[in-house]
Amino acid sequence: MIVLQDVSKLYHDNMHALRNVTFHIEKGECCFILGPSGAGKTTLLKILYAMERPTSGQLSLFERNTEKLGFHDIQALRRHMGFIFQDYRLIDDWSVYDNAAVILQILGKSSGYIHSRVWQMLKWVGLQHKVYDRAGDLSGGEKQRLAIVRAIIHDPDILLADEPVGSLDDATARYVMNMFHRLHRKGTTLVIASHREDPFIDFARVIALDRGRLVGG
Ligand SMILES: Nc1ncnc2c1ncn2[C@@H]1O[C@H](COP(=O)(O)OP(=O)(O)OP(=O)(O)O)[C@@H](O)[C@H]1O
Ligand SMILES: [Mg+2]
Questions:
Q1: I need a surface site. Which of 88, 116, 138, 207 has the fewest CB within 10 A?
Q2: Ranges of the chain whose pLDDT falls below 70
Q3: What is the distance between the alpha carbons of residues 162 and 195, in angstroms, rounded to a whole number?
Q4: Nearest C-alpha to atom 12 of ligand 1 is from which residue?
Q5: pTM of the complete model beyond 0.90
Q6: Are 48 and 59 in contact (CB under 8 A)?
């Protein structure tokens, strides 16, 4: 499903964010990318989403070598993926509803389906009273819940999650982790970056990173 072969990422010619990272993630696996701040977790997820190109090495997604793919092919692959960004990346001037709905609109779903799915998902994360609010006015935890909804609303085959519960209280974090468990049981491939192992997830494989190097997994 995901194959990373000897991938390095250099910023500014001398900042090695990743060094010779190789691993395979099979369909349906759940992997934790663990490592301290600055270890390269976000860089790694961005490479897996093909939004950053490796400086050297190769990424294949859904059995396709991404090096050979153009912008439209990459966009097509991403429709089968979801990404919960560490910094949320919501469109602040859009409503909560529009942020949640955007991928369903891109996928050409009917407005009836979109309406019921968006309401169902926003209710599920307790944001139903904020549906028509501006996303930029939400609190940190509310933004994180909206970012989670946006990433999973189209039932992606691969979910990449960058510190997905960092801004959530314990109860909500547990709720979200249970949802990841459900997605995992349904066959979604999950890659979750975190500073620490999650006590609620005992079904994940751990890939440990330190200063850009794989140190276990
Ligand atoms: N666009 C960039 N330009 C220059 N350096 C970068 C860039 N992105 C990341 N880095 C550097 O690469 C290293 C790894 O960063 P990354 O964001 O991947 O770490 P992280 O493991 O996600 O950290 P955190 O847990 O704090 O989110 C850091 O030293 C960071 O400063
Ligand atoms: Mg990070």
A1: 116
A2: 198-201, 216-217
A3: 10
A4: 17
A5: yes
A6: yes
